[in-house]
Amino acid sequence: MKKKTIPLIPPHKIPVYAIGLLRNPLKAISKMIGLYGDIFAMQLAKNSNIIFVNHPDFVKHILKDNQDNYSRGKAVKQSAITGLHELLGNGIFMSDGEDWEAQHKLLKGLFSVTAIEATLPTIENELIGLIKKWENEIKTNPIVNIEHELNLLMLCIMLRTQVSAELSFDYDAMYDALSGRMESSSVKALFMFQLKAFLLKPLGIKYQYTKHKKYLETLNAIADTLVEGLVEGKYKPTGLFQLLLADYQLQNTTKEGIRDQFMNFLFAGFDTTATAITWTLYSLAANPALQQQVKDDLANSIKKDATLHLANRQLPLLQMVMKEALRLYPPVWSYAREAATDDVMCGYPVPAKSIMVISSYALHRHRQFWPSGDVFTIENFEKENFKGKNFAYIPFGQGKRMCIGRALADYQMQVIIGGILQAFTLETLSAKYPGITANIIIKGEKPISVRISK
Ligand code: HEM
């Protein structure tokens, strides 16, 4: 194949784009794609390339065809200044090769049909609690900040199903520490660091990133107490902790290994699902006729067979709504990989150590593959329309490093969204769509709230 050249962003434009990336990375990346096309590079220093790609062929190359050459863990470590590697340690998210294979083999047991179904009583219990709480609250104030409420719900479900059902956790404190930690590990923080380091270097000053260390200390203290309690048999563990305790007793893992995996689950396993549920509910609030159709579908399906649990119902309409919400609002909106060796990707040379950035947010709105662009259109997921789009639609990633928790997420989403829609009707507060921004996870520029009625 003929060698092609990756367009380079002119160096004098870098500060402008860096500021844009700081303000709103979603908008900035989309704007850069509009200007430079589906592949372009930013050179921050000699041998320090960031290559942005926005085409299914490149996605396929990086995440599948030549996936062993592109490491997520190394990309995160290269941006070690943001401290994400300190949070995640050597857990599944960061590992590669045989180490990853062993961790994946162990953890995948948590996502079997039986293991997923075992989480249902907890999901139901917490959901009933939330519905009761909202029923009470909306008597005086019908406006609910669903983004925050669902984050706390999913954190609670995750801790009760994967750590222990008999411990009491301070969900608010944990959520605040985690959000603070995530914020300082975002693309925003990374670019802020790069920019400051770049500006201070000529003055001989080496910029150090120390912000938000206190959040990590809080999370480490929580993790240490939980791990000590686990190995000393002070409480009955569930899910992940039950699995890791057995592994520890076989001397296959250490206390540090348990801590790392716990942090990886905190990082990947609840706000992703909470965000997906939030945007699905918001999209239904913004499309009242579709919301009614989904409600009717739920009611009809229950009429047909009242004994079948919501979790086990075939609800193709709700599934299409969830998929479309994940297209427009993919919680994990960007992927980073580091190239291990020099490579050629669809004719383009990729130097070793390049950081490859894929924005699923931009890819999912690419007009060539998604003519409906920014408009919520569930027909995108009719079989014939979706055909051939596997690498243009990547809310859960692709290749072997695809989300290990996707079946659990899908299950939880159907039960929780279905349960909420059976209890309430949702309306938006204004005709204008809320602004979207992102740290590591997509979120509303202002917290996403809706009006709720019985
Ligand atoms: C709607 C909800 C979710 C979304 C959108 C989501 C998305 C993703 C994506 C895009 C990746 C791959 C990132 C990359 O390739 O760089 C990923 C990986 C991962 N996710 Fe999820 N996720 C969700 C729910 C969950 C849940 C419920 C869990 C666990 C309880 C989980 C655990 C993980 C783990 C451990 C990885 C790393 C897998 C590996 O490297 O082998 N995720 N997720």
Overview of this protein structure:
With 454 residues, this protein is of the alpha+beta class. It has one domain: Cytochrome P450 (Cytochrome p450), CATH 1.10.630. The chain is 52% helix and 11% strand. It contains 20 helices and twelve strands. The protein has helices at 14-23, 25-36, 56-65, 72-78, 84-88, 97-107, 113-117, 120-137, 146-162, 171-183, 187-200, 213-231, 239-249, 255-268, 271-286, 288-304, 316-328, 360-363, 383-386, 406-423, and strands at 39-45, 48-53, 70-71, 143-145, 334-339, 343-345, 348-350, 355-359, 425-427, 436-438, 442-444, 449-453. The strands form four sheets. It has a five-stranded mixed beta sheet, sandwiched between helices. A three-stranded antiparallel beta sheet has the order 4-12-9. A two-stranded antiparallel sheet has the order 6-7. Helix 8 runs parallel beside helix 20 (406-423), helix 9 runs antiparallel to helix 15 (271-286) and helix 15 (271-286) crosses helix 17. The longest helix has 19 residues, at 213-231. It starts with 13 loop residues before the first helix and ends with a strand. The mean pLDDT is 93. Residues 72, 92-93, 104, 264-265, 268-269, 272-273, 276, 331-332, 335, 395-397, 401, 403-405, 408-409 line the site of protoporphyrin IX containing FE (HEM).
Defining traits:
alpha+beta, Cytochrome p450, five-stranded mixed sheet, three-stranded antiparallel sheet, 52% helix, globular, binds protoporphyrin IX containing FE
